[in-house]
Amino acid sequence: MSWEKFTEQPRVAEILSRSLRHDRLAHAYLFTGPRGVGKKQMAIHLTKSLLCTRFEADACDECLNCRRINSGNHPDVYTISPEGESIKIDQVRSLQKEMTMRSLESPHKVYILEHIDKMTLQAANSLLKFLEEPPAGVIALLLTENSHAILPTIVSRCQVIPFSPLSASELVRRLAAEGIPAGVASVASQITSHLDEAREISQSDGFAQLRSIVIQLTKEIKQRSSSALFTIHEQFLKNDRLKEELSLFLDLLILWLRDILYVQVGRHAQLINSDQRDVLEGQALQWTQGELLHGIGLTMDTRSRIGRNANPQLALERLVLQLQEGL
């Protein structure tokens, strides 16, 4: 992949490639933007372009350095990710020790730190020392989805590179060009802003199954029976794969409830599940606007609580009961 291939982030590619060509790379960059916009891919390409033995200021993807970076085995390239919920001070101390050592095969050493916003305070303060006095030839690439959670002193010592999300309409257009049904592509474009992830979601069996569960569940909730709880038990609690996709399920539920609301207010052109219009119109007769707005809020709260390690089974059961109770 060359710089020209980054059509989703042309401005970022131009900034970095120009800095590389003119030998003006900063010692630390902060790549910030939503999940799935290509921050990690850009960091890897910049690293390959810096160490490539065949091309100057770009990556050939064929030389030994490029291939080892792709496989995560280059001795002068290090990647740090959270251990559990956070990046810990021991990880940063180990990184600092590596930084002081001479590079093994090239004039540069590159460190890619993912989810930098998840550093403990002690780890962040330790990293700050490197940013204040960086060793020669060392480049740090910090990646985050939430720059507001990073110490301002760290941000101020990096060159901040914001990544733009790919528009939903452009995602749908590209997916549709690959033969993915427009309705499915439309839903996937609301889940992620990255083309590869949207493609993977659209083509997965789990995605189709989860959307079917959403449609079934919203129908059963209005029947005021125990069938909705039975669906939760049967579909999720006995299926380990679906358990791992609870966040996606809740995202799909939010989009479905919002689409029912759009049908009620006549905003058919904005439907996300456009391929299920007949089903949405039928359910629009069963829900009130107040119930839908309340249901969207409840689902968002449930997603947040599960993200904070709430018991998934209890959280889903509570959500179903609250949705059945309405306002």
Task: Characterise the protein shown here.
- The structure is a single chain.
- By secondary structure, this protein is of the alpha/beta class.
- It is built from 16 helices and five strands.
- The protein has helices at 10-21, 39-51, 64-71, 89-100, 121-132, 152-156, 168-177, 182-191, 195-203, 205-221, 227-237, 240-243, 246-264, 277-284, 289-307, 312-325, and strands at residues 28-32, 77-80, 109-113, 138-144, 159-162.
- Strands 2-3-4-1-5 form a five-stranded parallel β-sheet, sandwiched between helices.
- Helix 13 (246-264) crosses helix 14 (277-284) and helix 15 (289-307) runs antiparallel to helix 16.
- It is elongated and about 70 Å long.
- The mean pLDDT is 88.
Strand order of the largest sheet: 2-3-4-1-5
Major sheet summary line: 5 strands, parallel
Rg, nearest Å = 23 Å
Tally of alpha and pi helices: 16
How would you describe the shape? Answer: elongated
The structure class reads alpha/beta
Mean pLDDT reading = 88
Low-confidence runs = none
Total number of beta strands: 5
Question: How is the topology of this model organized?
Answer:
Layout: H1 10-21, E1 28-32, H2 39-51, H3 64-71, E2 77-80, H4 89-100, E3 109-113, H5 121-132, E4 138-144, H6 152-156, E5 159-162, H7 168-177, H8 182-191, H9 195-203, H10 205-221, H11 227-237, H12 240-243, H13 246-264, H14 277-284, H15 289-307, H16 312-325
Parallel strand pairs: 1-4, 1-5, 2-3, 3-4
Helix pairs in contact: 1-2, 2-3, 4-5, 7-8, 8-9, 10-11, 10-13, 11-16, 13-14, 13-15, 15-16
